[in-house]
Amino acid sequence: MTLQDIADACGLTRGAIYHHFKGKVEMIDAVTDYMFNAATFYQDIKVDASLNGLEKLRRLFVASMTDDEHIKMYAMLSQTFYKSPKLVSAYLLDCQNSVIPITQEYIEEGIADGSIKGDSSEYLAEIVMVFTNLWLSPLVFKTTKEKLLLRVKYTKIMLESIGLPLINDEVILAIEQFYKQCLCATNCNSSSDRCNRAVGQKNLL
């Protein structure tokens, strides 16, 4: 994907893109910053007194993988990440700066209310970020349905072993649906019917 492709996806001219960003890495930084900080669902979850810390964390991950704006952004990014280690590095740096603080906040709540059994919110948040935004991310790894579900399975086992049962059936379903959206964006350029056919032919989600 070129800057022109990104400009077309955003409904902007190439000149407008260059006016605001020096290159792809800087634009990725701005896009991911928007994704992690401008999402309205984060504030809704944060103030929901009916949820404990673990439930808030689960709700956050489900919302981030089903929110329409997030899906559009990820769809755009997915077409360029596979070819550029620099962009992956920029993405992970933004995850470190944006995802970890939010995740740590909910983990601290979970430890306080007993829904999470770990004793270090900082390290637990880092572990969650690495697994969910790197190992399970279709932006970073091309994979099949079978391999994705195995990764989810082992991530679930590992997180439960350290007192953080983040992954339940709802989270798994959201991961599957999100993966399908990213697959469609990467492999299809036309209608959703064509997209679904491509998915079926590849024996994926």
- How far apart the termini lie comes to 24 Å
Poorly predicted runs of 5 or more residues: 189-205
Proportion of helical residues: over 70%
Q: Can you tell me the CATH class?
A: Mainly Alpha
> What fraction strand?
under 5%
Give Rg in angstroms.
17 Å
Q: Rough shape?
A: globular
Number of helical stretches of at least 4 residues: 11
- Overall CATH architecture: Orthogonal Bundle
CATH topology: the name is Tetracycline Repressor, domain 2
> Number of domains in the coordinates?
1
* Largest sheet: number of strands, sense, barrel closure: none
How many beta-strand segments? Answer: 0
Protein name: HTH-type transcriptional repressor KstR2
Pfam family, one: TetR_N
GO molecular function, one term: DNA binding
Keywords: DNA-binding
Notable traits:
single chain, 205 residues, mainly alpha, Tetracycline Repressor, domain 2, 11 helices, 0% strand, globular, disordered C terminus
Description:
This protein is an all-alpha fold and 205 residues long. The chain has one domain: Tetracycline Repressor, domain 2 (Orthogonal Bundle), CATH 1.10.357. It has 11 helices and no strands. It has helices at 3-10, 14-20, 24-37, 40-46, 53-66, 68-81, 85-113, 121-135, 145-161, 169-187, 192-201. Helix 3 (24-37) packs antiparallel against helix 6, helix 6 packs across helix 10 and helix 10 (169-187) crosses helix 11 (192-201). The longest helix has 29 residues, at 85-113. The radius of gyration is 17 Å and the shape is globular. The model is unreliable at 189-205 (pLDDT under 50).
